[in-house]
Amino acid sequence: MKSAHHLSDALFDFIYKAITTRHYWIAFPVQSYFLRAGDLHCFSSREQARTFQAGLNDAAIDTKIIYAPSVSSAYQQIEGVYSHSKNLFNTKNLSTMNEQNYEYLKDSLKYLGFGDSLATPLREAMSKEAPDFQLTFETEINKKAFAAVLNFRKSDSTDMYFVNSYHATLQRSNGEIFDQAFYLNKGKGITGKEAYNLLEGRAVYKEMENKEGQKYGAWIQLDFEKRDRSNNHEVRQFHDAYGYDLKAALQKFSIREVKEPDLADILMQSLKKGNIQAVAIEKEGSAVRMFVEAAPQFKTVNLYDAGLHRVPKEELEKYLVEGRSKVNGKEVEINKGKKGEVNQSTAKEKAKDQGEKKEEKPKATEALLPKKDRPEKSKGVKLK
What we know:
The chain is of the alpha+beta class. It has helices at residues 9-20, 46-58, 71-85, 96-111, 119-127, 192-199, 246-251, 261-272, 347-367, and strands spanning 25-29, 41-43, 63-67, 132-141, 144-154, 161-171, 177-183, 204-209, 215-227, 233-239, 277-283, 286-295, 300-304, 323-327, 330-336, 342-346. It has a four-stranded antiparallel β-sheet with strand order 4-5-6-7, with helices on both faces.
């Protein structure tokens, strides 16, 4: 006898419409074995879903919240909730090979930054021996909701499972939601924290491999103005040949950590992961706490004040080291007075001033000569 379906046909259309409008958080009652119209409630943020859940829990209605960026993800998670709550499956003892596969996947999840929280759900999902399954990871990073749905698939030739990709979603402080699918190669690729940084708009440096198997390094950054055929944001790449020198960009500013080799290496490694990093900027004889991030497209770094407000371009020269550097693409000479005032001039301006001074000297000499001895000024070209 065929088992009953937990989702009515009408709800598939409902979930599809919700997901296309980025309402990825779904709340539903656990007690209802067969879900009907009105049983599912979709929200654009986890906070909204939790508020709804709290109201139903107060009314003694046990409610579950899931994160589902696709209809298949919603179906699998809802089925999983019901099968687990009704004890419709028992966790099987994995074979030696499957145990090794499990340990491999568990380590891969750790490498990707998802920790141990998915270890138990991973074992349970593998024991079902389905051709594919999904696991959901949810957390908060800097008080912002971050979630990822990881896609696992069994090999066509063996019983080994692999994690091939994950779909990440970030809700920024202003309430905007950004999402992106990240593809993995043998469990390696963009980590969860790097995905968070990319969705925040920052750049990440990665060692990658092309179709021919050749490895190369590049900074990558999401283009939030463009999407590809899969509805992913297009990815901009700045290869090593592009000429972005992170160390040189940092050395233009009076960053205390840059002067210490060990601290400089730690700072650059953090920036390459896409982090916005706290630094000490030397100004007027004291250290000011600020933040810095890599900006490979413009071959520089962006500075932020202690309140994480970006420093405008016209104010960047305050934090440059003395000597020659570049501000807004122009070479300038930075001279700081006793009180920390900044006097800057471009190389062209300085050369122009020196040229004008040289031209003024003959005029002063001519003025001292009697009129009859002064050189004659011709109004045209004299032909001989």
